[in-house]
Request: fold
Amino acid sequence: MSSPLTAETGEPQHLLRHAERSGLGNFVEPVQDIASTISGLQADWTFEASDPGLRVRLRRHWVRLRRQRAAPAFQVIKAVSRRPLWVVYFVFAPAGRIGNAHRVALARLKDMGIGLFVVCATERPDLIPAEVLHAADAVCWKALSGYDFSAYSLALHLLARQSPDADVFVMNDSVYGPFEDLRPWMRRARWDLTGFTALDATENHIQSYAFFLRGVSPERMRALDDVLPSDRSFDRLLDVVLMQEIQFARVAAQSMSVGAYWYAQESSVGDPVLVRPFELIDAGFPFLKKSLLGKMAQFQPTDRVVELLVKRGFFGAAWQR
Reply:
């Protein structure tokens, strides 16, 4: 799917109109360049569909028949208002407690001066931390099931109805960050759906810890129903990855333009956010995966990860995560 480009910037005209409507075009300069020399990574990659193979397709059919569940319960705590630009942040806090990384992220997102919508998963609605309620312009409680895609679905469908045609940046709390203002990245986005990193594992897909979706409307959400349904979910991590994350870009590409700032082939590089985190951050990438201090710690030296987080204000002397 292509669009006419402006002579001055080379950006699609319909995306510039979105930026002007949302206010990004008036006061935020786009990120001018991203490094194209990170070993093994392709910069500014436009999505191309690839074949996952018969075995994967059969597995998806089985999972859809056997493991699809109703969407988790939710409750609106602070209602959405109509705005041109939102950030959605999914916070998983089963016991009603958040860590320092959440607090820093909430403060930085709030400081951007755009609508902040937090979907918070806890055991009960009354356990949502006061810090979340204070920071956010809109808050939804979500039951613990369904993983991040159930939170994305909930927030995006609410925004489509109550703030139609808004541009929405979506992120979850699997990452430390943002390290930088996200608005220049939103301004630079040249696709309707923009991911930061993409990978060819199973099939070409954008990684879903953070993405930017323009023009969120009821029509757009209907087009994404296979991966972001309002009434259905999956409650096993590998099912969410297989049925939602890995299919997201391909389903979206049927009705909109899709791309990512960096793309990697698993066979030659691996997962870029695990294998090239420091090179990405040097190039302006505003996140670091929390799993580098957990189940994926073997990918990078722990001391180097902690040193970066201390410099970026996410760790203090107590090493609170």
In short: The radius of gyration is 19 Å. Residues 1-10, 317-321 have pLDDT under 50 and may be disordered.
